[in-house]
Specification:
Chain lengths: 311, 270
């Protein structure tokens, strides 16, 4: 991995509040080059932190330096940054290639160059076959991937990805994780947020733990991991044949409980790694039909944060 | 700034043309055409019927002038300015697509400017054909000569573009600066402007319509009570004053809108 010594993000006493609500509270942090995971339950302040470091919000207090420069009111810096937001929002009537190309043109590329870059980016996220389809007709996974394509199409030094694996099926998840690691190997720095430790862990061991607007821990993932493993992990799987999946899971030692919801099965597992590996194999084999979406509520992570805060 | 605005313009024009607002715009602009077609039909099928206002017969060109002033300048153009101008940034915020524009190496002001230019192109592309259709349906009534009056049509079209530019800029600023911009905009164009134009004094200079009325190449009908009242207090600036004032309105409000967008934070609902 090519890593420069300079940190990609430096914040000093960074605070942001919305009226009476504190979004981020006195955060002083240095994010090194490479992949860094931003981990925290929903509402912890991850999105506020990412919006501040991408210059969408102005801090009420404190300072932010991205790649050595201030970000607020400094649009030239976006040449070096790619951002994949969490929200599922698009110009639905545009095709994937039109949309990515149009956004690359905003970076100053000419029409031909923008088309070429968009083409390459869509190829990188394995979406070239659907490049000519309207985004409105894309599946959740395709929408997630086209969002990533627009973030990397202009070849930025720093990629900031807000919940990039949310809603992806197991195969797309595996591909995306591989892609993120490849980008890091090619010299890019990546900040990726998630509320699922196992997602982050599969990409990097360097994490920032955020809760209630504060960075509660930073550094190596493995110590946190031990805490997480003592709490059951909940996974919701939307699939063609949830009952067949349930039969398969019931035979596994790591599955603690399962229940059915509309078109989905919700599983509690004591060993998330083992469970996800099995799930990916099942999805790849296609034996039990298609698996459309895998999501994980953050109950277990919330429990760990409560533990961290109270001890 | 201009190059960035041109890129935002490219991206926004198609979006604007195919937006839900354009359906509304289609209905709004279809109204005068349907009305003109109905008048044409009634005139063609009823030989002795003539259009009249308060008992006075109105010729085709006169009727066209009334439609331009009452329907387009006093209603359609301001309403379009309100609906599109206040939504230039608000739509992107509501759809949560603003993130993609504000995380590019483009000044936020250029985003607003590019979208304003797209608004102007979109509304012009849709308004002008409607006016031309009405012209060809109405002007020949009562023997009006289409070719002879063509220069005045060009004057009308130019005035409409100036009106769209002025109202769009004013409401781009209102949308960028104030909360509830739509309500404020509608109160301005449907309440403030029509009422304040009836009274003498300087307050009417705080309207866009005051400056636009000097650019109307048609004589307005004077046979209604309001028309007579307006004639009494009529104080119309010269064309040069009007054009200069409208240019100042566009420049100042657009500059203020750009400043507001550059300074403002946009917090998207999660």
């Amino acid at each position: 991995m090519i890593e420069s010594a300079a940190p990609v993000v430096v914040t000093s006493h960074l605070s942001k509040w919305y009226g009476q609500v504190i979004g981020l509270n006195d955060v002083t942090v240095t994010v090194p080059a490479g992949i860094t995971g931003l981990l925290g339950p929903n509402g912890a302040g991850k999105s506020t932190f990412l919006k501040l470091i991408t210059g969408q919000l102005k801090p009420n207090k404190g300072e932010i330096f991205i790649l050595g420069e201030r970000i607020w009111g400094n649009p030239a810096l976006y040449v070096r940054i790619g951002f994949c937001p969490e929200q599922d929002a698009f110009y639905e009537r545009m095709t994937g290639i039109e949309w990515v190309s149009a956004l690359v043109r905003l970076n100053g590329a000419g029409e031909r160059e923008a088309d070429e870059r968009a083409h390459r980016a869509l190829e990188a996220v394995d979406l070239l076959d659907a490049a000519g389809k309207k985004i409105g007709a894309y599946s959740k996974g395709m929408r997630q991937r086209v969002k990533m394509a627009q973030a990397l199409a202009h070849d930025p030094e720093l990629l900031i990805l807000d919940e990039p694996l949310s809603g992806l099926d197991p195969i797309a998840r595996r591909k995306t994780i591989r892609l993120i690691k490849e980008w890091a190997r090619s010299g890019k720095s990546i900040i990726v947020s998630s509320h699922i430790l196992h997602e982050i862990e599969s990409m990097t061991s360097n994490i920032l733990l955020i809760n209630q607007g504060r960075i509660v821990a930073e550094g190596n993932v493995h110590q946190i991991r031990e805490l997480i493993d003592t709490h059951p992990h909940t996974v919701s799987i939307r699939a063609d044949q949830p009952r067949a999946l349930a039969r398969e899971f019931l035979a596994a030692d790591d599955v603690l409980s399962l229940r059915f919801e509309e078109g989905a099965i919700v599983v509690q597992t004591a060993k998330p790694d083992v469970f996800y590996a099995r799930l990916t194999e099942l999805a790849a084999s296609g034996e039990l039909g298609s698996i459309h979406e895998v999501t994980s509520p953050d109950d277990n992570l919330q429990a760990v944060f409560q533990y961290l805060v109270t001890t | 700034m201009l190059a960035s605005s041109a890129r935002v313009f490219d991206l926004s024009l198609g979006q604007m043309l195919w937006s839900r607002r354009s359906v509304f715009l289609g209905f709004l602009l279809g109204g005068p055409v349907v009305l003109a077609a109905a008048i044409q039909l009634v005139t063609a099928t009823t030989p002795f019927w003539r259009f009249s206002v308060n008992g006075a017969r109105v010729s085709g060109p006169g009727l066209f002038g009334m439609m331009i002033w009452l329907l387009y300048i006093r209603f359609i153009v301001p309403v379009l300015g309100v609906f599109y101008g206040t939504a230039l940034i608000a739509d992107e915020v509501e759809d949560k697509t603003i993130t993609y524009l504000f995380t590019r190496p483009v000044r936020r002001g250029a985003v607003l400017l590019g979208k304003y230019l797209a608004y102007l192109a979109c509304t012009t592309l849709l308004v002008l054909p409607s006016v031309v259709l009405v012209y060809f349906l109405i002007v020949p009534l009562g023997g009006g000569r289409v070719g002879e009056l063509f220069p005045s049509l060009l004057g009308d079209l130019g005035m409409l573009v100036v009106g769209l530019a002025a109202y769009g800029a004013v409401f781009a600023w209102v949308g960028a600066r104030l909360r509830r911009p739509l309500v404020i905009g509608l109160v301005f164009v449907l309440g403030w402007e029509p009422s304040i134009l009836l009274f003498p004094g300087y307050l009417k200079r705080l309207t866009v319509a005051y400056y636009l009325q000097a650019l109307v190449p048609h004589a307005m009908p004077q046979d209604s009570a309001i028309g007579i009242l307006m004639q009494v207090f009529r104080e119309v600036p010269t064309i040069a004053t009007s054009l200069a004032s409208l240019a100042v309105i566009v420049a100042v409000t657009l500059w203020s809108a750009v400043r507001a967008v550059e300074e403002r934070e946009y917090v998207l609902d999660q």
